[in-house]
Amino acid sequence: MVRSEGEVLRQVIVCSPEEEYFQVNNLEAHNIEHVADRQLAPRQHLALRETMHRAGAKIINMPELKGHPNSVFTRDTSLVIPNGFIRLRMGLLSRQGEEDWMARALTDLGLEERGRIQPPGTVEGGDVILAGDVAFIGLSCRSNQEGVDQLREILLRAGFKVRIIPVPPPHLHLGGMMSLVSPEDIICTTEIYSPDYFSGFQVHLLPVRGAISANVICLGPGEVVVEASNLAAAEKLDQAGFRLHQLDLSEFVKGRGGPTCLILPVERG
Q1: What is the pLDDT of residues 197-214, one digit of tens each?
Q2: Is there a contact between 177 and 191 (Cβ–Cβ < 8 Å)?
Q3: pTM of the model
Q4: What is the pLDDT of residues 42-75, one digit of tens each?
Q5: For every residue of 93-126, which 3-state class applies, written as one string?
Q6: Residues 217, 226: Cα–Cα separation, whole Å
Q7: What SS3 state is found at 9?
Q8: CATH second-level architecture of 9-268?
Q9: Do 56 and 268 meet the contact criterion of CB atoms below 8 Å apart?
Q10: Distance between CA atoms of 179 and 188, rounded to whole angstroms?
Q11: 3-state DSSP: the chain helix, strand, coil percent, rounded to 5?
C-alpha cells in the first residue's frame, strides 16, 4: 500500500510496450506526439524495470490492453492508498476502459476498492501525489473539478489533508511539474510554487517549463530515476546529494510521458 511517494518503492505495476504502443492510427486522439521506435522502446522500458528491480522493487509486468496504446502509462489508471485502491476515470476519451483493466488487476492482487470516480468526473493518476498526511491533487485538463471534488472527499475519509493545485496549460498533469523525492523533499517548477501549497516540505525549485521537468521516480529517500534529457532536474538533485539513475526514456517522452507515468506504485514503505 502507498501513503507517501517519497518512501522506498517495494512493488510496482508496469506495462511493457509490445504491440499496442506502436499501433497508433490517430496521434491526436491518443495524445501521442510521435510513434515510438519498435526496437528502442522495449529496451528502454527493460532498463527501467531492471533499475527498479536492483533497487529492491517487485515488478508486476502486465500485458498491454488491446486498442489502448497509452496503457503503457499505468500511473493514470488507479490510485493505491494505505487501505486499498481508488478506481479513477480517464480524462482522455481514448483511454477510458483502462481504469477497469487495472481495477481487475489490483483486485486480483488482493486490494479492496475504496472508492471510484463517477461520471462526469475525471481524474488521472498523474494528477495525484501522496505525501504522507498530505495528498496533492492537480486540477488539470485531464482531472476536472467534479472529479477532483469526488477524489478530495474519498481522500479526506482516508485520513489525508488535501491540497488542490491548478495545473496551467499546456501541461497535462501535476506530476510533470512536481514529484516527491523523499518523505520531506519535493522537486517542482516555479510555475506552480507557492509557500501555501508546499508548507512542511523542503522544496527544490526548477526554473524550467518542460512537460516532464519535475517528473522523477523516487526509489527511496535519496535515490531517484531521472529521464536522461532532463538535465535541469538531474543537476538540481545531484547538487542536493541525491543518487541519480539517468535513463533514456525518449520513446515514452514521444507519448508525452515521463518516468513516473510508466509506473503504478502498489507498495511503498
Answers
A1: 999 999 999 987 777 889
A2: yes
A3: 0.95
A4: 999 999 999 999 999 999 999 999 999 999 999 9
A5: HHHCCHHHHHHHHHHHCCCCEEEECCCCCCECHH
A6: 7
A7: strand
A8: 5-stranded Propeller (3.75)
A9: no
A10: 7
A11: 30, 25, 40
Q: How many CB atoms lie within 10 A of CB 136?
A: 24
Q: From start to end of the chain, where are the E strands?
A: 9-14, 58-61, 78-81, 84-87, 113-116, 128-131, 134-139, 161-166, 178-180, 185-189, 202-206, 217-220, 223-227, 243-247, 264-268
pLDDT tens string 88-130: 999 999 999 999 999 999 999 999 999 999 999 999 999 999 9
Whether the upstream peptide bond of residue 170 has omega within 30° of 0, thus cis, is yes
Closest by alpha carbon to 50, among 219, 234, 256? 219
The C-alpha cell 482531472 sits at 143
